[in-house]
Amino acid sequence: MKDLAQTLESLGLSPTASKVYLTLLELGKTTADKIAKRAGTYKANVYDALQRLSEAGLASSMIEDNKRWFIPTNPKKLPLVLEDLKIKQENSWSILRKDLLEVMPQLQAKFSSIREAELFEVYRGRKAFKSVINEIAAEKPTQWKGFGNLQVQEYFPIEFQRWFKGVTIRLFSTKTPEVSQRLLNSQKICNTTIHWLPSDLFMPVVWTIFGKNLLIIIYEPDVILLRITSPEVVNSFDQQFEYLWNKSKKD
């Protein structure tokens, strides 16, 4: 059986980042102090490793009781990290993939043992955003719906074609020339419908439902994504959206 830390390092993670991620899988939601103590390293090194893990979409954080808590994200993202590595290291890709699949049951078991049923995950940066949407898109969701101005089409024009081909997009949005152009571009890829809101309504924060996920997104000045997977929360927002959508069609 391959060593877990060595396999993670072969994916491009530093030894410290690999150790911190495995520690997160053991502890679940925890603090930097506890990670440093369990991993046997300095807290400064832990924060650096957590930053790198966050950029790769492998860790998220949340503020609770005025304290920052760190949370591991699903090891299912690791094959996506491997896809990036494939471009840089084509020759060794097949061997690394085999090693990763070999240790995946262990990683998944560790994650399942500590995952909270109603986990809130926070991601920062475009790379982390793409990692999350790649993971969700792999599940073949059929709809992207909510309140937004189609910023995802503008911020990620190349990935948009892959993420949303065959997906129905329904949004409440503010009508501006920019959003109207995004709508036209989006309709070349997928079935997109917008119900227009009053022009004076400003939406710096948007929310959408994509598959079994509620995504609350801030696009500027940096992309920040809050992902909620609680079925109760997702269903609640879904029902509210459908009510408003059907009502706006009648009106």
Overview of the molecule:
With about 250 residues, this protein is an alpha+beta fold. The chain has two domains: about 5-115, Winged helix-like DNA-binding domain superfamily/Winged helix DNA-binding domain (Arc Repressor Mutant, subunit A, Orthogonal Bundle), CATH 1.10.10.10; about 120-250, Endonuclease Chain A (Endonuclease, Chain A, 2-Layer Sandwich), CATH 3.30.870.10. The protein has eleven helices and nine strands. The strands form two sheets. It has a seven-stranded mixed β-sheet, sandwiched between helices. Strands 1-2 form a two-stranded antiparallel ribbon. A hairpin with a 2-residue loop joins strand 7 (about 205-210) and strand 8 (about 215-220). Helix 2 (about 15-25) packs across helix 3 (about 30-40) and helix 5 packs antiparallel against helix 6 (about 95-115).
* Number of helices, counting only DSSP H or I runs of 4 residues or more: 11
User: pLDDT below 50 for ≥5 consecutive residues: which ranges?
Assistant: none
Beta strand count: 9
Distance between termini?
62 Å
- Count of the domains: 2
Estimate percent helicity: 40-55%
- Major sheet characteristics: 7 strands, mixed
Would you identify the CATH H-level superfamily of the largest domain?
Answer: Endonuclease Chain A
